[in-house]
Amino acid sequence: MSSASLCASLTIEATLSLTLFMFTVILLSVPMEILDTQRKVQTVLEVTGRELGWQVYRTSHTVHPAEMEAGKAAEAGEKGTGGWSELPSGLILQGYLKEKIQTAGGNKVSNIQCGASRVSEDGEWIDLRASYQVRLPFSVFALDHVTLTSRSRKRGWIGAEGGYFSEKNASEPEEKWVYVGRDSTRYHLSPSCHYISNQITAAAYADVISGVLRNSGGCRYKACRYCGKTVSAGGLVYILPSGEVYHGKQDCSSLAYYVQKVRRSDVEYMGVCSYCGSG
């Protein structure tokens, strides 16, 4: 083979290799471009859904002036906010979505359909849907586009009347507080209830055994099943004023109740203690 033929062969191979390499790079970039376009469309739906949720709040609740100003400032900081005077729906909403999606997707997006987008009459549900076509950089077996669908479903603001800035109604009753202990099955009206009280007192073992010291109910103390056998004659034991047993260790696990103060509305399902709640 002559040197001229060898050079020609190498040139052809290099040309084919470069062509295949460029084709592979373009082919691999297509899915990334499609995903990026889909992300932009989804962002449009999410932002619009948030704007509609705020509009539902403004049109159906008494808004405090401070909260209204905060909402206006947020709208001013977001490019392309609707600024609607009333809740949009139907063709107005579809036209707005089409315009925003076309702006975000550019010439890569076509045949945008938003007819399935809905806002419920009470404003509670906001369901935005968009079907569109993304153009491919080259045709693949006569296929020059990919059809995609994006959706964003949100709930309108349905919180308390007046919003976060509203003042508390003076006629509303104040929240009541109760007490619960570790592993409690009832809530207690008093932290000194004997079921959760942890006012530990040291006493002579002989006085407890002989019955000189009794609980507030007048009954003798019994040995704790966990640490009662560790007590020696002449030693100290630990008792609770309303307890039923004496303990050989001050850190006995049965003494650790960890009384907590909680709102009654949070634990009302437990029911009140029969001892401190009977009065």
Please give a structural write-up.
This is Pilus assembly protein. The chain crosses the membrane at residues 12-30. Keywords: Membrane, Transmembrane, Transmembrane helix. It is built from 5 helices and 10 strands, in the order αααββββββαββββα. Mean pLDDT is 75; it is low at 75-83 and 160-170. α1 (3-60) runs antiparallel to α3. Helix content is 35%, strand content 20%. It has helices spanning 3-60, 65-77, 90-105, 205-210, 264-267; strands at residues 109-113, 118-119, 125-140, 143-155, 177-180, 201-204, 222-223, 236-239, 245-246, 260-263. Strands 1, 2, 3 and 4 form a 4-stranded antiparallel beta sheet that branches. It has 279 residues and is α+β, with helices and mostly antiparallel strands.
Any key phrases for this structure?
279 residues, alpha+beta, two-stranded antiparallel ribbon, 5 helices, membrane
